[in-house]
Amino acid sequence: MIIRTALFVCLACGWNTGVLAEAMGDGIYKGDTESRLDALARIQPGLGVVMHEIGYRATAAYNAANGGNWGLAQYELKEMLEAQEVGEATRPQHAQMLKAVERVNFPPVLDAVANKDLDEFNQQFASMVEACNACHTALGHAFIKYRLPTEATAGGLDFNLKTDPAHVEGKEK
Ligand code: HEC
User: Fold this and answer.
1) 4-26: pLDDT as tens digits
2) Residues 6+ away with beta carbon under 8 Å from 22
3) Boundaries of every domain in the chain
4) Element holding 149 (H helix, E strand)
5) What pLDDT, in 10s, does the model give residues 26-40?
6) Distance 7 CA to ligand 1 centre (A)
7) Residue stretches of the chain with pLDDT short of 50
8) Which protein residue has the closest C-alpha to ligand 1 atom 3?
9) Cα of 109 to ligand 1 centre, how many Å?
10) How far is the CA of 132 from the centre of ligand 1 (A)?
């Protein structure tokens, strides 16, 4: 505690700032392009942030499909894939596993949405979740087990609005 306080005082009074700057780099505004890029790369969202979004959107997609809001289900699934792309870029060592789920497990779920086939959706969604959790276990995160939502909640969205899966990305009004 005493040491920490002393360190804080030293930093606060400006002593040692050179050492600190060297350890942390010059941030995103100063230095050469490479060190600024490194600083930018270090603060990009990793899987922790991306998965938070994916988990939220998976819950919303499931609830939306089960409430008859097929447009919202379709939208959330597409946004999940976009979030995944961020993870593939920032954690390339895991890109292969993320892409495998995208290639194998997503299309049948999206097809079920396009056909508004709830039984098929629930079956395919459950298989997708198994693949999600297999990756958690494979990467030493067996304690992270995504499970199907038991309540229709997420962000105050209306899951019972009856809509068609007809949203086309990039055609926003
Ligand atoms: C590349 C393998 C991989 C795949 C595929 C994957 N995850 Fe994850 N997931 C992780 C890792 C790793 C973490 C822990 C993040 C960290 O290390 O900070 C995680 C964390 C999570 C979390 C916890 C987020 C939090 O902080 O509360 C949820 C929820 C989640 N994943 C849901 C899913 C869902 C849903 C899918 C499938 C659509 C999925 N994941 C697919 C690797 C994966």
Assistant:
1) 544 444 444 444 545 545 555 67
2) none
3) 26-159
4) none
5) 799 999 999 999 999
6) 37
7) 1, 5-15, 17, 20
8) 135
9) 18
10) 7
